[in-house]
């Protein structure tokens, strides 16, 4: 009997191992989808935005979605290029930079207003400035702050329009142009008197005005740029290979499904009424401007 029991145990042991292996394969967890976005404004607002957004995507896509915050714009681009982020909400310039690091990456969605986006130029309220021509004539007595160096609305496009007006932001002002790091900080620095003029994202400026945070006795808006394409959701080229067939289309559908009636809290934090389809061709002009100003090499 002892011999028969030992033989039976030897026979069953490899079968048990095989069964456990099959169970483990069947229950292997899907990879985590890591989402990020440029830190273009107040970090508490960004934390609220992505907390409810990743919960929505997790439910819609059936995979765990995790938000990875970044310290600056360049860090988001680098993380995307190194596959530390698979999906990111970029500005126009950072989206181009990210897609150049991952050939085949695609812009798949944008907010409705991103096809007609603008930069707001602001100034101290006591300055006699109402146009870029006024800025040019007074530049030697003025200081300027942009947002992040990699910002489309806070640096790239305002720099472009300053140069078109005959102003060299690096040589013509009283001091070398500064970078605040985010749009919120830009208007606050001008309002405090730390800088004479600034350039920032129209959404951030308009929201601050609506909320009564702007002191009109200290800071004013004086010029708005022509429209350009800006923010977009970009995905890595290997998304479907790593997360399943047609995953990119499922993600795009989840973005396009967002609507004010059901998802007003998410959309409000994105300053959006909804998302629409986009593609890389929309940002060719941004890339051309970036190369012309040597912000893309």
Give the secondary structure arrangement, pairings included.
Elements: H1 2-26, E1 33-37, H2 43-61, E2 65-67, H3 73-81, E3 87-90, H4 92-101, E4 106-111, E5 119-124, H5 132-138, E6 144-146, H6 152-164, E7 178-179, H7 183-191, E8 197-201, H8 202-210, E9 219-224, E10 232-235, H9 239-243, H10 247-257, H11 260-269, E11 275-277, H12 284-292
Parallel strand pairs: 1-2, 1-3, 6-7, 6-8
Antiparallel strand pairs: 3-10, 4-10, 4-11, 5-8, 5-9
Regions with little confidence, pLDDT below 50 for 5+ residues: 1-27
* N-to-C series of helices and strands: HEHEHEHEEHEHEHEHEEHHHEH
CATH hierarchy: architecture of the largest domain: 3-Layer(aba) Sandwich
Find the count of extended strands (DSSP E, 2+ residues). 11
Give the end-to-end Cα distance, rounded to a whole number of Å. 79 Å
Quaternary structure type: single chain
Rounded to an integer, what's the Rg over CA atoms? Answer: 25 Å
CATH topology of the largest domain: D-Maltodextrin-Binding Protein, domain 2
- Supply the CATH class of the largest domain: Alpha Beta
Number of domains: 2
Q: For the largest sheet, list the strands in their spatial order.
A: 2-1-3-10-4-11
CATH superfamily of the largest domain: Periplasmic binding protein-like II
